[in-house]
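Ticket #4471: structure output looks truncated?

Reporter: J.K.
Steps to reproduce: submitted the chain below (266 residues) through the standard prediction queue, then opened the result file.
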Amino acid sequence: MNNKIKLSFIIYAVVFTNLIELLLKKLNFDSYIILVGFRFHLSLILPFFFIFRFNHLHDIKKFFIKPFYNRTFQPLSWIFIPLIIIFIVFYIIKKIKIGDPDYFYEFGLSSIIDYPIYFLWNLPQLLMFLIFLFLIQPVLKFKVIFTVIITILLFVSEFIPLYKTKINLFGIISLLFSAVGLSLLIKYFQNIYWISIIIFSIFWSSLLAFGCTSQTLIHILFAATYNSWEGFFKVSNGFVNYFLPLQLLITIILISFSAVKKKTNI
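Returned output as attached by the reporter:
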């Protein structure tokens, strides 16, 4: 592993990524671009360019050719079990029921069929972000903690309200849980393919099932021709914002148990 990345480059990546995004937000531009279908959020791709050097190609090649973790069914459980638990619990307490959303066929069912396409369109930016995090690991002490901090800092501009006074608390919590889960995956299950699938699938499945009002997330994870989606399931008022954080929290718990079991078996 090449450990010549300077901490200053990581700091530059965090600072300049946020400054660029804040400037775009101030000018009412999006923080993402779509090229030939491929999605590129600036927080996911800009850090890569700040730290990449051609002498990193050998390390990057190893990430793809020799992934550390190769099991199949366990990562699938981290994606689907939290979703199933949430649905069962809220269905039992009668806070969720089958919905009748607009664009049921055009958006809902077609999104299921088009899952491989949406994933492929997001894969380059996910890989660039993961390569960035993988490459900076030798620089960081207390790798899990600092990976969480860096991940959060790279997206902090998304939650700075320039024109609105209301802070997206549930979004911030979701970012925190996402950063923790991602850090655990990088620390204990270093498979760039599975981590990409897990990250995308958790957000994709949660928003498709329970709905989403974020135009940015809809455009990145789904079709760029829609701005919102009601979800396959109708949720009682005040509960829908809890679903993604809960799903991420349960995922963290499952990954943590798997990590402890993995260390015990070594």
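Triage note (M.O.): checked the attachment and the full token line is present. Residues 7-265 form one domain.
Status: closed, working as intended.
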